[in-house]
Design goal:
By secondary structure, this protein is an alpha/beta fold. It has ten helices and 14 strands. Helix 3 (96-106) runs parallel beside helix 5 (140-152) and helix 4 crosses helix 5. Bound molecules: adenosine-5'-diphosphate and magnesium ion. Residues 18, 21, 23, 41, 43-49 line the site of adenosine-5'-diphosphate.
Length: 308
């Protein structure tokens, strides 16, 4: 497989097995450049393992993956990648400024650029007052903020964030949201791992739901796309031929004795569907529609894991 220039991330059948446990099953993803992509799933779903494979930190059992057009782990592109790991350990004898400087330097930033950019990014994450303090005394939330600063200091083309709001207060969460939007506006691609629906829902352009190492559903969340509508028609005398004709407007068609269930992209097509059914000889008793919210999908997928 060779990568396409349009995508910041591409994977094909990426798989990771630990011993006898399959952590990630055949992950195939294409993330367009400039998008905020959310990877949503309960604890243990395989999100962190996936990010580590994308970064070349965990070797896949099989499959291909490319980031910014290069094979994952390619040293030449590392400088263009920002990463906030889920469980990070920083050199805690460094001050906030020194730590961010170190990461900037590792990414090839010049001293002149560091002098300008480091205070700016520390301010961005709200730590200016603490810039000369050693990281050792930092709270979990402050560490998370400094983690974000080191991931962004070199203005990377793509940023991987693994549970970026963990340990943050509500103000911190809002800050992360604003930062991610600013990153996208700058043209960067963001890959965000989270087990929190709310976090994904408000920030992401697209989401993939993952459970037991497998992507179950992907959804485009960009504002203009109409929400998918599920329709239930209470009808009799619907022939198989009539059902087949419905595929013009609907998908996911399911029929039982008294009900016809299907999905449509927009309710605009409903009058046409009703006219068609009536003209085909069906007796229609009721037509109801329900919006399938992201939350319903989330609850269905997470099952009992929603509290995690
Ligand atoms: N280094 C490892 N060795 C063995 N099992 C692992 C390792 N890393 C992760 N796992 C297992 O793989 C599964 C997915 O883990 P992970 O990717 O961390 O999930 P998530 O980030 O979605 O919570 C879990 O069952 C976890 O216990
Ligand atoms: Mg994780």
């Amino acid at each position: 497989m060779s990568p396409s220039a349009d995508y910041a991330i591409e994977t094909h059948n990426l798989r990771k097995v630990f011993g006898s446990h399959v952590a990630v099953r055949n992950l195939s993803l294409s993330v367009p450049r400039g998008e905020i992509f959310g990877f949503l799933g309960p604890n243990g779903a395989g999100k962190s393992t996936s990010i580590k494979m994308l970064l070349g930190l965990v070797r896949p059992t099989s499959g291909d993956s490319f980031v910014l057009g290069a094979a994952s782990g390619d040293v030449a592109i590392r400088r263009r990648i920002g990463f906030l790991p889920e469980d990070f350990r920083f050199y805690d004898w460094l001050t906030a400024t020194e730590l961010v400087q170190l990461h900037g330097r590792l990414c090839g930033m010049t001293n002149a650029k560091l002098r300008e950019r480091v205070p700016e990014v520390i301010d961005l994450v709200g730590l200016s007052q603490h810039q000369d303090r050693r990281v050792k005394g930092f709270s979990k939330g402050m560490l998370q903020r400094i983690g974000l600063a080191q991931a962004l200091v070199h203005e990377p083309d793509i940023v991987f964030l693994d549970e970026p709001t963990s340990g943050l207060d509500p103000m911190g969460r809002l800050m992360v949201r604003d930062i991610l939007r600013a990153e996208r506006d700058r043209g960067a691609t963001v890959f965000l791992n989270s087990h929190l629906l709310s976090e994904i829902e408000v920030t992401c352009d697209r989401v993939a739901f993952i459970k037991n190492g497998e992507v179950v559903v992907t959804r485009d969340l960009s504002a203009t796309l109409a929400e998918e509508v599920r329709v239930v028609v209470d009808a009799r005398h619907v022939s198989q031929q009539t059902v087949a004709g419905l595929t013009r407007w609907a998908e996911g068609i399911d029929v039982d004795q008294e009900h016809l269930r299907f999905r449509v992209r927009s309710t605009d097509v409903l009058p046409d569907i009703v006219r068609y059914l009536a003209a085909s000889g069906a007796d229609i008793f009721a037509v109801t529609q329900e919006h399938v919210s992201l939350e319903q999908i989330f609850v269905t997928i997470m099952g009992e894991d929603t509290s995690l």
